[in-house]
Design brief:
Layout: H1 2-10, H2 14-24, H3 60-70, H4 80-108, H5 111-124, H6 126-135, H7 139-154, H8 177-183, E1 191-194, E2 198-201, H9 202-214, H10 224-239, H11 244-250, H12 255-272
Antiparallel strand pairs: 1-2
Length: 273
């Protein structure tokens, strides 16, 4: 227990330490546009018995791989071999554990209750979104987040309802710490695949730690309560999206490339908006 307490205290200082590591590694730059080029070796065909020249062009993998190779505003992937191992781990974890649990959860918990739980978690996370808007100087969006939090916490019965959805002015685009670091001019660093979390970058991985510090449930004790909150949140989210991952994966010759490129392009758009 003392060791766990030490780790929990240490987490408070991780964002600052990782931030300086990011600066020392040369990933910070002036401006908010990514400039790192892909430096990972070319990806081989999925099947070693199928020559590369026999692959059918024009598929979703070729689109993403061509885009990743020619666009100068993307992210290096020097840890590709390790990332692929973690990607496979997450894939097995999904099919062997997360999906069965989410299916059982969906069978037991009616959809209206799951929607209420989803609204509640989203409402609690509004504090972090408001803080990140303030850190980016988006004061109008911060005010909108506060308004949504207030309306949903009162008229929405502690966030179980989402009456603020009826007011467009109270529904700004969500912001997280990864986007805040990007708005401050910090580059992505390099691509990462994190266990359970999935696609990320060095910058966004640091942002996850920051978002954890902004999440009110993180300060509940004992230590397993906030972890339980996150586990329930993940299960609840998956209960609405069972089958989505399989559909995307089955459409790709190399799912790793597709998820990597889609994630990086989406995150860049979120930072630049």
């Amino acid at each position: 227990m003392q060791g766990l307490s030490f780790i929990l205290r240490l987490n408070r200082y991780l964002p600052l330490g990782l931030f300086f590591i990011l600066l020392l590694s040369g990933c910070a730059h002036k401006g908010g546009t990514d400039t790192c080029k892909v430096i990972s070796p070319p990806t081989q065909p999925v099947s070693s018995t199928q020559p590369a020249q026999n692959r059918v062009r024009g598929g979703v993998d070729d689109f993403f791989e061509d885009e990743f190779s020619t666009n100068p505003c993307l992210v290096a992937d020097p840890l590709a071999p390790i990332n692929r191992v973690v990607f496979q781990f997450n894939d097995k974890l999904y099919f062997w554990c997360l999906k069965p649990v989410a299916r059982g959860y969906r069978f037991v918990i009616p959809e209206p209750i799951r929607l209420g739980i989803s609204n509640m978690f989203f409402n609690v996370a509004g504090i972090g979104r408001m803080a990140n808007n303030l850190l980016q100087g988006k004061f109008r969006s911060a005010g909108a987040e506060f308004g949504r939090f207030f309306v949903n916490s009162t008229a929405g019965l502690l966030g179980l309802g989402n009456p603020a959805a009826n007011f467009p002015a109270l529904n700004p685009e969500p912001e997280d710490m990864g986007q805040t670091l990007g708005a401050w001019g910090i580059d992505n660093g390099f691509y990462l695949v994190l266990p359970i979390y999935g696609p990320s970058t060095l910058r966004d991985a640091i942002g996850i730690v920051g978002d954890w510090l902004f999440y009110p449930a993180s300060y509940l004790r004992p230590w397993y309560i906030p972890i339980s909150f996150r586990a329930v949140e993940l299960t609840n989210i998956l209960s609405f999206h069972i089958g989505d991952y399989e559909a995307v994966k089955d459409s790709a010759l190399d799912p790793y490339i597709m998820f990597r490129s889609a994630y990086i392009q989406t995150r860049r758009q979120m930072v630049e908006r």
